[in-house]
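Design request, tokens follow.
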């Protein structure tokens, strides 16, 4: 069935047979491969035969172009027998052309002309030649000779001509471009045409649904369309019971791939080579590059690309279907494919292309010896780019090939470093042995500074401080002031001052770490990493600082997480944590954890989970703290952390101690840790957590020793600030248990002086402990201050402890109703933050709701039933000691609404003021918060 060819058919019939005419007529049907030229030719010949026209058919072939008169021989086969018998035959009595085998013999030309005259004298004659572009030259000359001299109106000639790269031969050009030649160009099918074709195969509904998709894959090429349909029917034949709706959806298969190959092959060798080159490069966006790759002139490449686009193989210089690209590459012999890949890699490298694009070709072909110098360096650069793009498999493949290709010792070491840096964020344990093997070269100067420094920093974290310090000292002596290396070393000094302040080997670097401000005369903006390092040192040494917090927030907003920016982001987050900006720290940390999970970067993920655990601990969310810390150690086992393992272990010990899980905390403390950890900031966290555990388990003297050791180290290292660990409060609490209130009071006051008037968790905890050293009558005011500060800063565990102390104080003062209210508040907070031991100590009475408490005390339960849900919530919070403003914030209502609810509550239960609210109003305050 011919689709969308009615106009072309009518035009051909008019050209060949319609109207008055003088002499013979010739029509040429042209179009891309598989556009339906042959089918249209057959329709014309069938129509002509039905009208009584004699038809002589011939099909030219590229395989017969070297055989003289191959087309003329086919035409003679359709003539009456007498013409076949009497014609001169080449090589049989006919003199050879003195001009060579491709020149026509004059007797043959004259005989062919006579035969045409005789045949047209009897009846109309139509000569139909398919694929005339492949006709042999002698046949073309004979046709031109005969048609030009035959003046009979009874002669018509119709030919099909496919696309050819390059100009036509003079003989073909002479034949096709005569004044009486009419041309009909066949275009690919439109979407409407595809719909018509599919309707015959799939029915109207499926055809309408999938025609656009079929057209997108084929460009309207009939052969490709038939391949897609045949693939569909093949699948249905294999599974005839598949009645799933939408089976008409195009899915390229083997028949489609073969049809695509046929389209390419039929375009000729140049089309085939250009198509293969395009498949190798992925697209044809650069004609000069493609021309060099396939060794074809640019003019011919453009012609071939135009033809491949028209035939439906390409669209906008890209393959319509990846299946076609794949089958073209699979069709290449392995050695030829490898050679092309190598040539493409070299051409792309010379043009300065993306190293990943170059490496993509190199990885398909193992370079022959000797390896060109540019190959290992290009593969190393490609690995770096691949890591930045989270394409780890590609990065590893590039580095492995680069290692195989290089014979230079230093280049081999650089490749090893690059491999460590590429894989460390994803699987640090897999790189430990390689890292340790690089310690010697990094220390001895065999590696350039930019490659030695990452190795040395990772060795530092593993506790190998002596050799790292020696190597960093050597590198520093060679650094030119103001250079990029000098800036890097300044940043390292700051990092060492905040991470390894107690290491004797690193004392030189710690002492020369510059102050918070910029260097004198420095005008260039400092790097984000230097900014974050300075801010961290400021907060650790001097306490929370708004300027430092603002600086790291800008760093976090402008820095994209990557392997090289991980230390920057990590330092910035720690500033927010130590400065008690826990809400902002939580938001950033959760975002970063999500990014790491998407990347599968387990090493990075472990670090951020440890920070998230630290946030949860400082906020008093004990179950969250243990969950995140355990997750951190699951993602990266302890031996991969080095000295940094002190942080997740300390969080676990602290949290389990506060929860009352003392056996679990003891088990964690029994795990081996690196001795070098105790010279680092992580060791401070560990010492403090261990002392807290000792205090909770009744080993006061050991705890006191631990808190003192922690304080002495912090003071010696310049980290004794309110942002760091409140060792004074731990020691004060220990002295309280030992009965020394004076010493406890002195330490609590020191902590208050250190924190200043700014609300903080440490200030709230210090007020709580100071209250414990005062007479009972003076305690409520200090404890109320502590509760207010802790409520503002979000230290829920410490707030629960302050409320518990306040409840106990009111009990001693005989204020039992207030004591019960404070107990309930403390209990709810203890339950909410997971402080199980504190919760048990508050001796909660189960099942004591408002109604049950009223029944127990003999109060009239009817009055409570008259309260609406909103009134009950407001009354319960008021009875629990919350202010109107706090109630409004918790329930997301206005203060005026709170006042109105309370007025109605007073009236319904017949009281006149807030203090008369019964303690039995035990609504679930935690739920309403």
């Amino acid at each position: 069935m011919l689709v969308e060819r009615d106009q072309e058919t009518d035009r051909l019939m008019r050209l060949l047979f319609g109207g008055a005419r003088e002499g013979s007529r010739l029509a040429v049907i042209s179009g891309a491969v598989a556009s339906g030229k042959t089918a249209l030719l057959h329709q014309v010949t069938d129509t002509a035969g039905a009208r009584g026209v004699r038809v002589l058919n011939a099909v030219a072939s590229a395989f017969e172009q070297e055989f003289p008169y191959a087309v003329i021989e086919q035409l003679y086969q359709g003539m009456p027998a007498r013409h076949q018998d009497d014609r001169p035959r080449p090589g049989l009595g006919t003199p050879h052309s003195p001009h060579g085998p491709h020149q026509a013999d004059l007797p043959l030309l004259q005989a062919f002309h006579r035969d045409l005259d005789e045949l047209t004298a009897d009846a109309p004659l139509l000569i139909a030649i398919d694929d005339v572009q492949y006709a042999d030259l002698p046949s073309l000359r004979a046709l031109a000779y005969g048609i030009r001299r035959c003046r009979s109106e009874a002669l018509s000639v119709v030919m099909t001509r496919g696309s050819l790269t390059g100009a036509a031969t003079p003989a073909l050009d002479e034949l096709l471009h005569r004044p009486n030649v009419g041309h009909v160009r066949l275009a690919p099918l439109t979407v409407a045409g595809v719909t018509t074709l599919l309707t015959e195969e799939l029915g109207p509904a499926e055809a309408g649904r999938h025609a656009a998709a079929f057209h997108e894959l084929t460009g309207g090429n009939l052969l490709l369309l038939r391949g897609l349909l045949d693939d569909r029917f093949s699948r249905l034949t294999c599974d005839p019971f598949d009645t799933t709706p939408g089976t008409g959806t195009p899915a390229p298969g083997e028949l489609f791939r073969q049809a695509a190959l046929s389209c390419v092959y039929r375009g000729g060798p140049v089309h085939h080579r250009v198509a293969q080159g395009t498949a190798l490069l992925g697209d044809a966006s650069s004609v000069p590059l493609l021309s060099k790759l396939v060794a074809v002139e640019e003019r011919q490449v453009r012609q071939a690309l135009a033809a491949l686009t028209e035939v439906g193989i390409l669209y906008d210089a890209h393959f319509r279907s990846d299946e076609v690209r794949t089958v073209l590459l699979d069709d290449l012999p392995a050695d030829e494919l490898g050679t092309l890949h190598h040539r493409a890699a070299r051409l792309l490298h010379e043009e300065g292309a993306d190293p990943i694009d170059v490496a993509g070709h190199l990885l398909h072909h193992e370079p022959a010896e000797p390896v060109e110098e540019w190959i290992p360096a290009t593969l190393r650069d490609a690995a770096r780019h691949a890591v930045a793009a989270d394409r780890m498999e590609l990065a590893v493949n590039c580095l492995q090939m680069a290692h195989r290709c290089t014979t230079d010792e230093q280049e081999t070491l650089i490749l090893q470093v690059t491999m460590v840096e590429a894989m460390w964020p994803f699987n640090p344990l897999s790189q430990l042995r390689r890292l340790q093997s690089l310690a010697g070269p990094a220390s001895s100067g065999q590696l350039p500074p930019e490659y030695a420094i990452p190795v040395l920093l990772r060795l530092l974290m593993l506790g190998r401080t002596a050799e790292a310090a020696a190597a960093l000292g050597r590198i520093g002596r060679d650094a030119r002031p103001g250079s990029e290396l000098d800036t890097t070393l300044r940043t390292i000094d700051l990092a060492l001052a905040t991470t390894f302040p107690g290491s004797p080997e690193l004392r030189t670097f710690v002492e020369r770490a510059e102050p918070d401000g910029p260097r004198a005369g420095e005008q260039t903006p400092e790097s984000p990493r230097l900014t974050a390092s300075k801010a961290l040192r400021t907060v650790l040494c001097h306490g929370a600082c708004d300027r430092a917090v603002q600086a790291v927030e800008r760093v976090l907003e402008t820095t994209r997480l990557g392997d090289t920016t991980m230390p920057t982001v990590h330092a910035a987050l720690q500033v927010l944590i130590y400065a008690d900006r826990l809400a902002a720290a939580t938001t950033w940390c959760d975002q970063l954890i999500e990014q790491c999970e998407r990347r599968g970067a387990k090493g990075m993920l472990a670090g951020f989970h440890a920070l998230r655990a630290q946030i949860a601990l400082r906020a008093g969310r004990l179950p969250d703290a243990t969950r995140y810390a355990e997750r951190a150690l699951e993602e990266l086992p302890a031996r991969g952390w080095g000295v940094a393992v002190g942080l997740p272990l300390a969080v676990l010990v602290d949290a389990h101690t506060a929860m009352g899980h003392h056996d679990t905390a003891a088990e964690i403390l029994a795990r081996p840790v690196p001795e070098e950890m105790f010279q680092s900031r992580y060791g401070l966290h560990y010492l403090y957590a261990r002392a807290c555990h000792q205090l909770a388990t009744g080993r006061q003297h050991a705890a006191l020793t631990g808190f003192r050791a922690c304080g002495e180290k912090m003071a010696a290292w310049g980290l004794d600030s309110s942002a760091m660990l409140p060792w004074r409060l731990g020691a004060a609490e220990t002295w309280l248990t030992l009965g020394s209130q004076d010493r406890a009071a002195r330490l609590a006051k020191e902590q208050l002086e250190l924190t200043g008037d700014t609300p903080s968790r440490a200030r709230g905890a210090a007020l709580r402990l100071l209250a414990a050293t005062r007479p009972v009558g003076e305690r409520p005011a200090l404890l109320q201050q502590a509760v207010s500060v802790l409520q503002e800063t979000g230290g829920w565990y410490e707030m629960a402890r302050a409320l518990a102390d306040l409840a106990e104080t009111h009990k001693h003062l005989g204020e039992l109703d207030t004591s019960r209210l404070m107990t309930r508040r403390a209990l709810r907070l203890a339950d909410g933050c997971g402080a199980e031991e504190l919760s048990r100590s508050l001796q909660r009475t189960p099942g004591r709701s408002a109604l049950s408490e009223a029944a127990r005390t003999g109060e009239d339960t009817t009055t409570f039933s008259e309260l609406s849900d909103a009134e009950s919530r407001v009354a319960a919070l008021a009875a629990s000691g919350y202010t109107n403003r706090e109630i409004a914030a918790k329930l997301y209502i206005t203060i005026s609404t709170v006042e109105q609810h309370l007025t109605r509550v007073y009236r319904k239960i017949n009281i006149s003021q807030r203090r008369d609210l019964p303690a039995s109003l035990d609504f679930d305050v935690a739920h309403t918060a």
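Comment from the thread starter after seeing the answer: thanks! The two ends are 75 Å apart (CA to CA).
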